[in-house]
Amino acid sequence: MRKLIVAGNWKMNKTLQEGIDLARAVNEKINGQKALVVLCTPFIHLSEVKKVITKSSLFLGAQNCSSKSAGAYTGETSASMIKSTGADYVIIGHSERRAYFKETDKTLNNKIRLALENELIPIYCCGEVLPEREAGKHFDVVQSQINEGLFSLSNKEFSKVVIAYEPVWAIGTGLNATPEQAQEMHAYIRDLIDDKYGKSVAGDTTIQYGGSCKPANAKELFAQPDVDGGLIGGASLSEEDFIAIVNSI
Ligand code: PGA
What we know:
This protein is α/β, with parallel strands linked by helices. The protein is 44% helix and 15% strand. It has a domain at 58-229: Aldolase class I (TIM Barrel, Alpha-Beta Barrel), CATH 3.20.20.70. It has helices spanning 16-29, 46-52, 79-84, 95-100, 105-117, 130-134, 138-150, 155-158, 179-197, 199-204, 215-222, 239-247, and strands spanning 5-9, 36-40, 58-62, 89-92, 121-126, 162-165, 207-210, 229-232. The chain has an 8-stranded parallel barrel, surrounded by 6 helices. 2-phosphoglycolic acid (PGA) binds at residues 9, 166, 171-172, 210-213, 231-235.
C-alpha cells in the first residue's frame, strides 16, 4: 500500500541542543496523523534525536550518505554508520548536493545501493531548474534523473524507494509549484515507474512534493491524487509550521 510521508529536511540548521528540542516538540505533537513523519537531521544530531522519538509514526533520517561503504574517506559518513544510529531513511540526490557538491546520477545510484544494502529507505530527489522548465525540458530532465539514478534497481529494490519531486526553482524561494504542476509531474513519474516496474509497484510508490511547501499551500498540494506527502525544508524548522503541514494530509 502506498504510504503518505512528510519528511522535514533541516539542512545545515540547528545546534545539537536546538535540534533535540525541536525533535522533542514534534514528537509530543504527533498523534494519530495519516502520514508517517520523518526528521532528516544533520549527522551529528541523529543518535541524540533518536533518543527523544517515542511515537511509532515518527522516524529518523539523514540528509546524505557516502557513495563508499567504508575506509579512508575523511569527512564522509557511510550508510551503515547512519543505520547504526537508529535512522531508517536517507535523502539522496537533493538538488543542493547535485549543485554544490557536483553529485552525479551515477554517484547517486551508488548511494542508493548502499542505502538499500544497509536497510535505509532512500528518499531520492529529482527536479528541474528554472531554465529547463522554461525551455519545456522538465519532463526529460526528471526522466533522466530517475532513469539513471534508480532504474537499474531490481523490482524488489525499487519498491523500497521513496521519490521526492522538488522543482529546484521552488526550493527556498517561496514560489511553490502549483498543485496542477505538481500533479502533472507526479503522474508522469508514476507512469515512468509503471512502464519499468508495472502497475502495482507504481501504485505503491510514495512520491513526495518538495519546494516552498508551507501550512498555507500544503493541503491543496497533498490533495492531488499523485502527491503522497512532502519533503519540507524551511518550514520544518518551526514546530508549529511543520506539524500544521503534517496535519494537512
Ligand atoms: P524548502 O526546501 O521547503 O525550504 O523550499 C525543500 C527542500 O529543499 O527539501
